[in-house]
Amino acid sequence: MKPYRGLAIIFGFYALGEFTSFALNLTIPGSVLGMLFLLAALLTGLLRLEWVEDEAELFIRNMSVMFIPPGVGIVSYIGLIKSQMVPISVAIVLSFLITLLITAKTVEFLRRNEG
Amino acid sequence: MNALGITLTLVVFYLFSELHARKRAFYTNPVLLSIITIALILKWFGIPYGSYMDSAVILKFLLGPAVVSLAVPVYRGRGTIKAYAKEIVVGIVVGGTTAILTAFYMAKALGGSERVLLSIAPKSVTTAIAIGISGKIGGIPALTAVLVITTGLLGNAFAPELLSLFKVKDRIARGLATGVSSHGLGTARIILEDELAGAVSGLAMALNGVFTALILPYLIEVLK
How far apart are CA A113 and CA B6, in angstroms? Predict the structure, then answer.
């Protein structure tokens, strides 16, 4: 019966996060809130890691396939993407490059000044 | 419910995963190839997206519990987070904010429409969280999903080389920059070269997802 304990906890925290996001009318996704609640439960010792770790790993290892259905929704927006190809592709490439280098240089500076 | 959507997704993803196992390169990424292939199949056969989603929605639903599950690697990495707390906090605040602002303003300067700007803003965080944020702020989750994966592929293909080109040697800096800029796909690459940088990259990815989810909806109100 072990997997059901882990699954019940994970789905339970997801439901709790969704409910909180809805009830408090928050713009933060319920799944992220659920993750924070589960993290808090683990850190405070309310839940034991062994109760959820196998099931959590199963979800994380198989996350890739879950991106496909939302991604396929792109079929409805081909026209929009074609007409905005330039702003989209330039922003994606340059933003990636700038974010990578600014983060790296900032952290490196911080580490160097620590000695 | 017709089983077409989920079957098509599993078959196509399985085939591309086999290809990726044989030829490991960023351009054989099975998720992006599957999205393109399935989109083309739907178009060719005139299958409406709604009909595909009839059963494929099950996979999409599982993203919720998958994000909740990210609490486990963060909990396990709490020692690393404590050891590099200052670097991680500064790296995520600086990097996470830079990612949002540069993407938003560059797309805006080049004439991007509001829905495109809202879809592009969360592109540096892990796909599952980015889709959630996009839906909440009025973006197009499907477009966000594709942009997030494209961003991740850039990191997967070029992050370590770019960091070396710009003479970034510090392992923590390399890991944080990779995780913040290109989430799980960047992490998957850098972990092959350096385990510590990879671990930091994975934590940066999860924490940047939380940071972005917390600030972006409010930041976007100011930017709009």
Answer: 53
